[in-house]
Amino acid sequence: MRRLAVPFLLAAVLTGCSSTEPGAPTTGNPAPATGTSTGSRAMNRPKAVDLKTLDPCSLYTDEVKTALGVRLVTPRDPQADYGEGSKTCGNNYEAPAYSSSIYTLLNGGVDRLKQTVGEAELTSVRAAGYPAYIDKRENAAGPACDVYVDANDGQLLLVNAVGGFGEDKTTVDGACEQATKLANAVGPVLATK
Questions:
Q1: CA of 81: how far to CAs of 68, 112, 127, 130, in Å?
Q2: pLDDT at position 140
Q3: What is the chain's percent helix, strand, coil content, to nearest 5?
Q4: pLDDT value at position 167?
Q5: Which pLDDT belongs to residue 176?
Q6: So what's the pLDDT on residue 168?
Q7: What is the DSSP letter of 37?
Q8: What is the β-pairing status of strands 142-152 and 88-93?
Q9: Mean pLDDT value across the chain
Q10: Cβ neighbours for 180, distance < 8 A, ≥ 6 positions apart
């Protein structure tokens, strides 16, 4: 009898004081969490957004363009290896050192990212309230940085910046600063979709 009473008592205690926000307990039945489980911890998002229906160019509002000095926003051909229906949008800035792109990755979420890029290569951060992962690298085009935003289960919003367009002083850290600024600027727009 005790074996049955302990789990029921524990369940009642946990249900009676639960919340989707850390430090803000609620009673009764809280609203469902908008998170995904990665390992044993939940990743909370401001809003889970189905990236299959998202046009990444729609994330560049006039406010985002003005705040970041975005000069030109253009849709680009999707990347086939990012999943069927993936979309891409690129931008150039008034200051020509870096350019950026936003991609919808529809072929796997955080678990796939950790397998393909390598968990040791990723730095866990938050971008506009969303769980995100940064991957710094040098490539043939120049210093680059990818910010993978965990927007929905099995889907990532990839925000990147690449430097070196005639600028010898671009760095990987500079690319990450640019990509992170863009991810933080478009994240609140993403949460409205």
A1: 29, 13, 24, 24
A2: 81
A3: 35, 35, 35
A4: 64
A5: 97
A6: 73
A7: E
A8: unpaired
A9: 81
A10: 125, 127, 134, 145, 147
Please say whether the beta carbons of 130 and 187 come within 8 A: yes
The tokens 């409205």 sit on which residue?
Answer: 192
Q: Provide the whole-model pTM.
A: 0.77
Amino acid 34: pLDDT: 38
DSSP label of 85: T
* Matching residue, tokens 């991957």: 135
The amino acid at 165 = F
Q: Which residue has the tokens 């789990």?
A: 7
CA angle in degrees (0–180, nearest 5) for 28-36-12: 25
Q: Both tokens of residue 132?
A: 């995100």
- 3-class secondary-structure state, position 92: strand
CB 160 within 8 A of CB 101: yes
Helix count and strand count (H, E) for the chain: 4, 9
Q: 3-state DSSP call for residue 21?
A: coil
Measured CA to CA, the distance from residue 37 to residue 32 in angstroms comes to: 13
Phi–psi pair at 63, nearest 5 degrees: -65, -45
In 3D space, the residue among 74, 111, 98, 114 whose CA is nearest the CA of residue 181 turns out to be 98
pLDDT average per 10 residues of sequence, the chain (193 residues):
34 35 36 37 81 97 96 93 96 91 96 94 97 93 94 97 80 96 97 95
Q: Could you give the CA distance from residue 76 to residue 61 in angstroms, rounded to a whole number?
A: 18
Instruction: Give the pLDDT confidence score for residue 22 in this predicted structure.
Output: 38
